[in-house]
Amino acid sequence: MPPAIEIRDLRKSYGDVQALSGVDLDVPEGSFFGLLGPNGAGKTTFINVLVGLVRKSGGTARVFGHDVEDDYREARDKIGLAPQEFNVDRFFPIREVLEHKAGYHGVPKSEARERADEVLKRVGIYDKRDTRFDWLSGGMKRRFMLARALITEPDLLILDEPTAGVDVQLRHELWETITDLNDHGTTILLTTHYIEEAERLCDEVAILDSGRVVDVASPDELMDRGTDRITVSLRD
Ligand code: ATP
């Protein structure tokens, strides 16, 4: 069985800037995996390569055995992404946005509404189904980003700072939802700036610094080893 994510010598440059300079990483299927690192470490670039938003400069990246560029469709169909940015169609009711996305991914119309309702209930904003994205509160927007990532029933859920800027209560609610998904078999890759979040949720954490993986360990091991690595991850 191939790992959920298999990365070898992955490189990405933007002109003179080396965002990723030889990343090797395996994320086992079913794991809850954290990616930590300071601003500019390369976390978003790493994710963008996985989902086909940027082209790598070298190396290989596979998702459940599918090369993210050569087998783009197969790899992409396995992934649900909740990006940091709210890149959402703002003018339609959120249920319609979800139905549309499901349709785009080949879900028959008759099933699309049912699926949209199911994910809206799952993240706790079903009562807002007829509201447009613009009119949701910041916390509800974060919940919606998760719902949108789930609409394709992904095997790998990628969450780029999913709780950035949300209050403590919502953060805990989101943690519960995400943990439940992982308990039911979804592999999760999470980037975060909150060490508490990594400790609470992740089985394993990779520390990315200046485009390289400088450590992979359980959150407890990182704590036991001292705070150097953690400090690197939080150096903003
Ligand atoms: P943050 O925690 O702030 O989101 P990050 O770890 O996600 O940071 P990236 O956004 O991947 O880091 O950026 C890695 C490096 O690549 C940075 O030096 C950044 O300035 C640079 N970079 C990212 N995108 C581009 C781009 N489109 N063009 C040029 N440079 C870029």
TrEMBL record:
Name of the protein: ABC transporter ATP-binding protein
Keyword Metal-binding assigned: no
Transmembrane residue ranges: none
Domain ABC transporter as annotated: residue spans: 5-235
Section covered of the full-length record: 1 to 236 of 316
GO molecular function, a single term: ATP binding
Taxonomic lineage from the root: Archaea, Methanobacteriati, Methanobacteriota, Stenosarchaea group, Halobacteria
Organism: Halopelagius longus
The keyword Nucleotide-binding is annotated on this UniProt entry: yes
Alphabetized UniProt keyword annotations: ATP-binding, Nucleotide-binding, Transport
Domain of life where this protein originates: Archaea
